[in-house]
């Protein structure tokens, strides 16, 4: 019998700030067993966890995040063996699991009946992931439960990469947070759907597409988001996160020159999401967030969401950005995807 009283008062919870020692993990596990909501670090971004087989607890996640109920959740598990409790681990899934788990890869597989419709938005498939972060792993082991966990942000805000981001959005709306410092990857997991042929990439993320294709020995169908915002797959809105301040993304061969010209001639309060190599020429900006350099996408990935939150808080009229890495390979693909989704306007210097 699961007691879910904690989930019934979603917007006025006392949020316990916990460390990551053994006692903290035990306290968080007890809250989850009782149907409560706990934010915890993963190697990608912070997740907001609830007992995945307790429908009332899962509904609490949607209320706390103000997330639409038709956007399905990822179920996190301690090991590949536990994944088989909630999903059908087919041959391709097994191959990717051996190669990439624990790690920043999510697989969409046929679901088992134990998974409530609340988790999957009524779909016949379920998204599953075995996270690599030691705190996430310790929590999953301590509670012995599958944990449904979306990113621990309010719907429409950037995913949280620090405990402070989680608290800025969800303090008073969740039961506890395990503060494990800044997350390592900084972007969400790669999502691959393996329920049909061919396998499909639903979201670029922490594991590069090339590495998945190499492991499978076949290419993935890349599902692109429609420009008009229509949903192609559940939760795949064209604009997922958009800052309150309009973000203008400059693309193409002349992007760097155009970005510098736009910022140099602007009369409004302008912010820039910038690369180290552009910094000196952007002195006219009211606020600059430097995230990394073109050749080191892993560095920019770690900083991106924190930088977007800082820019959004700086009371600017407009934010400019160019791509942060080669969008056709590695983590650059996920970086470009997140920037396109954050932008209200695109200036393409080649068209
Ligand atoms: O790195 C991550 O994946 C983080 C950490 C916490 O694990 N989680 C995360 O969850 O980014 P969330 O809820 O923000 O994004 C999950 C997305 C959904 O928006 C949806 O697009 C997709 O996963 N998804 C979940 N279940 C699915 C399903 N059955 N079929 C297709 N897509 C699904
Ligand atoms: Mg999210």
Could you walk me through the main structural features you see in this protein, from its secondary elements to its overall organization?
The chain is of the alpha/beta class. 31% of the residues lie in helices and 19% in strands. It has 11 helices and 16 strands. It has helices at 22-33, 55-65, 80-86, 91-100, 117-120, 134-143, 163-170, 209-216, 255-265, 297-313, 331-342; strands spanning 16-18, 38-41, 46-51, 74-76, 105-110, 125-129, 147-148, 176-178, 190-193, 200-203, 221-222, 247-251, 270-275, 287-292, 318-322, 345-348. The protein has an 11-stranded mixed beta sheet, with helices on both faces. A hairpin with a 6-residue loop joins strand 9 and strand 10 (200-203). Helix 1 crosses helix 6. The radius of gyration is 20 Å and the shape is globular. The model is unreliable at 1-7 and 226-231 (pLDDT under 50). Residues 150-151, 159 line the site of magnesium ion.
